[in-house]
User: Fold this.
Amino acid sequence: MNLQVAQTNIPSGFIDLGAGEPGLDLLPVDMLREAASSRLSQNENEFLQYGVEQGDGYFRFALAKFLTPRYGFQVSHDNLFVTTGISSALDLLCTLYTQPGDTVFVEEPTYFLSLKIFADHGLRVASIRTDESGLVIDDLIHALSESTPKFVYVIPTFQNPSGHTLSPERRAQLLELAQKHNFLIIADEVYQFLGYTQTPPTSFAAHIDSNHVIALSSFSKILAPGLRMGWLHSNPQVIQRIVACGLLDSGGGMNPFTSAILCGLIEHGDLDKNLSKLVNVLGHRMQIMDEAIKKHLPQVKYTSPHGGYFFWLQISGMDAQELQKRAKEYQVGFRPGIRFSSRNGLNDYLRLSISHYDAANLEEGILRLKKCLE
Assistant:
């Protein structure tokens, strides 16, 4: 059996340019095997117990040491909370900070699966328009004149699906508005370290002392999604509120076993090595896809991304859902823009990803899409 097909449900020979997870060739199984073997060979087994609610202290210390030079400011392990990924963190924050019927603001477009989490909690979602510099602040100000959200959920760096990055000026304006209107900023920064041709602005975690910022990140894009490991970065008041919740009181800290394995991996510099590899490989793939789109799809409108996973294309006058159906005949797939809209819009947009295939398959996928459009 073809393992890649079995794992992703992608038919053999089909190139799904919409797949947003890392390809199997990017998952560092040897590195993780060595880290696990090293940890399990030690004469201790405390990490098999219920964990400390905030997350293993040794792991948080190692993570803080890893983050500090990349963020450009001192990160304290006391301000980190271990999660099982961004999805679980979002769900937990909705549980603790919202009630059914509350309003939350999101970007338009936004990560489509976050919308399902908000729907699970009965939240009212209002979307704010974005452009190449991220959230349009004038539109946000207008929305705030009509309602005050519990939080604004943003993907500020190499956004999914648009690839755009929220500019430093707009970040500062968003922080000012959060303080003025008393809402939280939940910053999903999963692509923060995947810059190829541009260094992104400083993490929102630099502003946790404002008491209006919760920054989320994950190992899903920089190591492996199956680890189900991530972190939340905020001030002590937020951390304490989370630590004291019933879920953790009952179940203890999240994923202490995996934390123990990753602690050694980080300490030995293996996460650094893997990240460097990803930046090189994915940066090359992004260049290849960019060149292929310019050459073979001159009719589409898009902005070349500087990092992350995604290209966001507009084909004026085309219904992307209908195009998706037709594209199957050419053995190529993508994600239609309507999936990323809370307004049921963006019908003429589509998202492509560089994460799942090598450069040759990415170029072949664009050629198939060209034939489909012709």
Residues 270-296 form the longest helix (27 residues). The domain at 33-270 is CATH 3.40.640.10 (Aspartate Aminotransferase; domain 2). The first strand starts at residue 15 and ends at 16. The two ends are 35 Å apart (CA to CA).
